[in-house]
Amino acid sequence: ITYGTFDLFHIGHLRLLQRARALGGENGSLTVVVSSDRFNWVEKHKKCAIPDVQRAEIVGALKCVDKVLFEDSWEQKRQDVIDNKIDIFVMGDDWKGKFDFLKDLCDVVYLPRTPDISSTELKTKLHG
Ligand code: C2G
Questions:
Q1: Cβ contacts of residue 122 below 8 Å, gap of 6+?
Q2: Is the CB of 121 under 6 A from ligand 1?
Q3: pLDDT tens column, 53-109
Q4: CA angle 46, 52, 55 (to 5 degrees)
Q5: Are the C-beta atoms of 71 and 35 separated by less than 8 Å?
Q6: pLDDT at residue 15, rounded to an integer
Q7: Residue burial 24-56, b: 16+ Cβ < 10 Å; e: rest
Q8: Active-site residues: which are they?
Q9: How far apart are CA 63 and CA 101, in angstroms?
Q10: Cα(128) to centroid of ligand 1, in Å?
């Protein structure tokens, strides 16, 4: 399982999701939990360019993604891991250590971020 906003979907997101899926092996599956617009605005003070329903549809259309859920609170991760019988929790290493509290339920893996790209950077570039 992995979590994210996936706004202005870019290669950094794709490479994270592909690597996350690969951790599950050939018989594995990947569940992606997409941050709702409300959660992003209220909890992360991030304004999304793309609405949550469209961000979820884009992620859900990827070959490496099997299931998409919505993230609406910081507290839902434990229940999501239990309900979805998750073996591995994966995030980019900008979150390193932040989700180690899940280690009693599943493996917790932090993958290196793809350098030189982010939704924030893209927005800045667009604004010139
Ligand atoms: N990512 C990456 N390389 C980048 C940019 C992002 O590997 N150049 C990864 C991030 O580390 C994260 C995932 O892609 O694992 C999604 O990134 P964001 O959409 O920025 O997600 P974020 O806002 O960090 O939300 O509860 C957890 C949060 O919902 C995570």
A1: 8, 10
A2: no
A3: 999 999 999 999 999 999 999 999 999 999 999 999 999 999 999 999 999 999 999
A4: 105
A5: yes
A6: 98
A7: beeeeebbbbbbbbebbeeeeeeebebebeebb
A8: 44, 46
A9: 30
A10: 24
Query: To which residue do tokens 């209220």 refer?
Result: 42
56 token code pair? 């979820």
Q: Is the pTM of this model over 0.90?
A: yes
Residue 120, pLDDT score: 87
Q: Give me the DSSP letters along 46-106.
A: ---SS-HHHHHHHHHTSTT--EEEEE--GGGHHHHHHHTT-SEEEEEGGGTTTTGGGTTTS
**Amino acid at residue number 66:** D
CB 29 within 8 A of CB 67: yes
Cβ 113 under 6 angstroms from ligand 1: yes
Phi first, then psi: give them for residue 88, nearest 5 degrees. -135, 130
**Residue whose CA lies nearest to ligand 1 atom number 24:** 4
Amino acid at 60: G
